[in-house]
Amino acid sequence: MNIENRKKIVSIKLSTLIILGIIVITIVGIKIFQKKQNNNEMSIQSKLNIKQENSLKEEIKERTLEERRILVSSRSSAERDGNPNIYIEKEIVENKSEEMIEELKINTTPIEEVKISKDMDLTIRTGLSREDFILLISKLKEDTSNFFKENAGLIYDMCEKYQINEIFLCGLISAESGWNIEQAHRKTFNYISLMSNGKLIKFTSVENGIEKAAKTLHENYLIPGGRFYYGSTLKGVKTKFCPASATWVNLVYQRMEQILK
After folding, report:
1. pLDDT in tens, 56-95
2. Sequential DSSP letters for the chain
3. Taking CA 180 as the corner, what is the angle to CA 191 and CA 178, rounded to the nearest 5 degrees?
4. What are phi and psi of 196, to 5 degrees?
5. Residues pairing with 199 in the sheet
6. Of 1, 145, 181, 194, which residue is least crowded by CB atoms under 10 Å?
7. Tens digits of residue pLDDT in 6-25
8. What mean pLDDT do residues 117-144 have?
9. ∠108-109-115 over CA atoms, to 5°?
């Protein structure tokens, strides 16, 4: 083969390679373009989907609000029209509340039926409702300073909390501090003469003083295991509460009687 023919063959091969290269580049370019096109379409579709979803959510929200407005309007209309079916549940709740109040009234003791005695268990409550106890104390003529009247609800609550007879606690406060609450007891908020080193212990407020009195009686004098427990009667409490007095039991009981007379 002469040189001229060889040159032609090499030229043809080079041309073929160039053409193949162009074809490959073209194919790759087309695929890249298609991929970008697909991505753009997906992006557009995604945005459309998000927009449609947001639009749908907004529509649902508006419908819900409208339904609520209709419901409220319907209830208001029904209430104005006196429709008894709309508030059946409310009436049931109200009836239950009334039943509970009636049951509470049945389980409480009327003021005129409250009984006391010298050997009574001081941890047994009177059975009075809070309202009746406050009413009873409000009529107490001996309470010239209104201390008992003003604090009747608090006394009742503390007796309930610490399981103490309300009449006893009031009688004890009166016996130790006087119906008018003597100055020393007012200044210290110490109403049953709790002592430390021969002096009245000072408390921070009326509430603190009354609660401390009830708590001390309950924990130390009125329950088995208490430091000074000798029985939950006036005589038992006196054993360590006021051992030197021969009249303490009679004095406290006398004050209790004054409350119920």
Report:
1. 556 655 665 565 554 445 444 444 455 555 445 555 545 5
2. --HHHHHHHHHHHHHHHHHHHHHHHHHHHHHHHHHHHHHHHHHHHHHHHHHHHHHHHHHHHHHHHHHHHHHHHHHHHHHHHT-TTTTHHHHHHHHHHHHHHHHHHHHSPPGGG----TT--TTS-----HHHHHHHHHT-TT-TT-HHHHTHHHHHHHHHHHT--HHHHHHHHHHHHTTTT-HHHHHHT-SS--EETTEEPP-SSHHHHHHHHHHHIIIIIISTT-TT-S-SSHHHHHHHHSTT-SSHHHHHHHHHHHHH-
3. 55
4. -150, 120
5. 196
6. 1
7. 667 767 877 787 887 788 78
8. 97
9. 145
Q: Name the token pair of 140.
A: 């107490």
Q: Which two tokens stand for residue 90?
A: 């409310």
d(CA 232, CA 250): 16
Q: In this structure, which amino acid lies at residue 7? A: K
Token output for 118:
């010298």
Dihedral sign of CA atoms 29, 31, 33, 35 in order: negative
Structural contact between residues 145 and 181, judged by C-beta atoms closer than 8 angstroms: yes
